[in-house]
Every structure is written in C-alpha cells, then in structure tokens.
Task: structure prediction
Amino acid sequence: MPKILRVGLVGHGKAGQAVANILSNDPRFELRWIARRSVAGQSHTHPGTDVPIVGIEQHPYAELFESMPVDALVDFSSPESIHAYGEEVRRRGVTLVSAISAYSEDDLAYARSLGDNTRVLCSPNITLGINFLIVAAKLLRKIAPFADVEIVEQHFREKSEISGTARKIAETLEVDGERITSLRLGGIVGHHEVIFGFPHQTVRLTHESIRREAFGTGAAFALTQLADCANGFYTFDDLLLNLMRAELLGADAS
Ligand SMILES: NC(=O)c1ccc[n+]([C@@H]2O[C@H](COP(=O)([O-])OP(=O)(O)OC[C@H]3O[C@@H](n4cnc5c(N)ncnc54)[C@H](OP(=O)(O)O)[C@@H]3O)[C@@H](O)[C@H]2O)c1
Result:
C-alpha cells in the first residue's frame, strides 16, 4: 500500500482554499495543517474538515514542523514565505511544491539552492491542463515550424493585463507577443487557445479553466510525481516530460 503523504499548506486565500478542498479530499494525502500570516482568536479549521489553520506570526515554522511534522509543503502564499520556512525544509528534507507566480531572481536562486537538500518544484502556472497544452504546442511547433501560430486568450471583463500564461506560451513557441489576441468578456475564468494554421488543415489546442480547484489538482500531481524523484530543482515541464518519456519508451525508461 503506497505511503500517505503528510502535507502542510501555506496560504489560505483564494487559491489556497481551493487547493485545501482538493488535498483534504484526496486519500493519497493527509493535509495536516494550513498556515497563513495571522489568525485571530482561538481555533480555526478549513471548512468541512478538522484541518487546523494556524497563524505563522503566532506559531513559527520551526515549532509547526516539530509539533505536526509533514513530508511535503505546498506554498500558495507570497514570495517572502520561502525565506521563512526554507531552512526548516532543507534541514528536514521536506518536499516543496511552490506555486508562487512572482518570485524574483534572488528568490528563485534560493529555491534552487534548496534542491541541493530536498525535492523542490516551482511552477508559476500549476494547472495540469495548461502545462500539458504548452508541452503539446511546443512539440507541434517543432514538427511544423512552417505553420502560422496565433494565441487567443479570453478572461473576465475586469482583467486589465495580457494573460501571463499567454505570454509564456508565446515565449515558449518563440512567436512574437503581437500574435496574442486578448478578449475580455463577462465572467470567463480563463481560456487559452493556440491555433496552428497549416496550408491544408488547422490544429487548435484549447484549455478552459473552470474552477480554482484546478490548482489543487496540479499540486497533487506534482506531489505524487516528486515522490519518485531524486533531490533537485524541478519545473512542471520536467515532471510531465519524465512521465511522457516513461509512457512512450516503457516503464524502464524513467
Ligand atoms: N502557480 C499558479 O498556477 C498559481 C495559481 C493561483 C495563485 N498562485 C499564487 O498563489 C499565491 C496566492 O494567491 P491568492 O490569489 O490565493 O492570494 P490571496 O487571496 O491574497 O491569499 C494569500 C494567502 O497567503 C497568505 N500569506 C501571504 N503571505 C504570507 C506569509 N508571509 N506567510 C504566511 N502566509 C502568507 C495570506 O494569509 P493572510 O490572509 O493571513 O495574510 C493568505 O491566506 C500568489 O503568489 C499567486 O501568485 C499561483
């Protein structure tokens, strides 16, 4: 029987709450605690569960890791958190899955250094579907460099900036940012489409975000894949490609 992974989650905001919904309902994991900056009053738990929510200002990481040890930490808080728990993670060999989107170069260098002592994944976009779309689009671009490429992104009316995911897709496919079309309509959560125009056919790769719980599915995928990896620093691409390589070449290839 596979080992149940004990997990701590940092961040209980819009994304963290959805991630907690997924991790607390997945029998492969035991979500032991959720940390946020500060918790007022006595005891708080994640809705519908008995998972405690603790304030890091009241209970520093050293104390938390000691009283409720975990095998892995998932971070959906803010860029500074990694500097608060980093050395505990390093010392205890706790696997780290960080979804923080806005790390500086220095933060990323520090995250990479943790990979010397444990398994670390940093992914500014952690949904399984978008990462798969990017890998598939990259492959098609290699196979058919002559095809025209257009990227269409659609989001809710209030989103003012061009989607960072669309810019990442353009960068990965080495196409000009001018090839991104942004539409702002009602309450669309997130739609990304890469269109490959061949002379005699058209290929469309599309991803639709439905709920923030998709971040939790991505984090769960990362946790299970990292369990089979050596210490080191990984991106979501690395995990997907490892899996695809193993699938295509047979079980011995990993
Ligand atoms: N990779 C992805 O695909 C992806 C997807 C969604 C979000 N994210 C990232 O996840 C993070 C959170 O996004 P969000 O929309 O959920 O933000 P949010 O609603 O503002 O929630 C942030 C949460 O993190 C906690 N937090 C912030 N700084 C902390 C610290 N130093 N120590 C402990 N807890 C801290 C906050 O606690 P308090 O309320 O107590 O301050 C809050 O619970 C952002 O960095 C975002 O870029 C990534």
Remarks:
- The mean pLDDT is 94.
